[in-house]
Amino acid sequence: MRILISNDDGIYAEGINRLYEQVSSEYPDTWVVAPDRNQSAASHSLTLDNPLRTQEIFKKNFTAVRGTPTDSVYLALNSLLNPRPDLVISGINEGANLGDDVIYSGTVAAAMEGRWCRYPALAVSLCGSRFYDTAAAFVIRILRKIQETPLPGQQILNVNVPDLPLSQIKGIMVTRLGRRKNSESIIESQDLRGAPIYWVGPQGSPVDRDKDTDFWAVENGYVSVTPLHVDLTAYNSLDDLGDWAGMV
Q1: In what order do the strands lie in the sheet with 121-127?
Q2: Is the peptide bond before 202 cis (omega within 30 degrees of 0)?
Q3: What's the mean per-residue pLDDT of the chain?
Q4: Do the beta carbons of residue 157 and residue 226 sit within 8 Å?
Q5: How confident is residue 70, by pLDDT bands cut at 50, 70 and 90?
Q6: Can you list the domains of the chain with their CATH numbers?
Q7: Model's pTM, two decimal places?
Q8: What does the buried/exposed string (b/e) look like for 101-131 if buried means 16 or more CB atoms within 10 Å of the residue's CB?
Q9: Among residues of the chain, what percentage have pLDDT more than 70?
Q10: φ, ψ at 242 (rounded to 5°)
Q11: Is residue 96 very low, low, confident or very high in pLDDT (cuts 50, 70, 90)?
Q12: To which H or E segment does residue 90 belong?
């Protein structure tokens, strides 16, 4: 397979480099196109008011993009890589992307931008910052499984790996997204000149962590794999809004 790797932590992050080392050892036609700096929580933003600039950096097959995670994958798919890759992997993110996190996650957004690939895109997150090799090992296992049994195109697999040694992982669970409380309150402060400044508060704690959720799986030592799609239509509301048709 020809594989594109991107992320939102930036091209110098430990996670993307450890992932490349393991994936490229088994799939040599692997390329990295990623932001030149941390772009966490960038969601699916595209840069429209400035040109995108690229730079080949310290490793072969690595290209840094001065832009967002979505910029990086979009540019790779439409210009930099010819032929196009068969699969896009985003990660390994430092920290979890569970439940409502997927709305804000640049990691998940980079995978979503690769959804037009023939195979599903993977968004891979380590729920911590220590055992990147554990996450990379499960990426290899998932890639082998995808080669054996291809999944439908335009689908994203959101993978969250407990921050544990490989020997302590209990297995893989296919899960649904859990749900968090609303984020904590804005933190207000002042700069050195007394002007107000604001910090986004910490993410909310989980409120839906039933046994079929990604939260439960990771908390209990399982790798969580959640299939995502990008059709946001609320189908159960179509009939309820039916009498709106023709309204002037």
Answers
A1: 54-56, 62-65, 30-35, 3-6, 87-94, 121-127, 156-162, 222-228, 171-174
A2: no
A3: 92
A4: yes
A5: very high
A6: 3-180+208-230 (3.40.1210.10)
A7: 0.92
A8: bbebbbbbbbbbbbbebebbbbbbbbbbeeb
A9: 98
A10: -60, -35
A11: very high
A12: strand 87-94
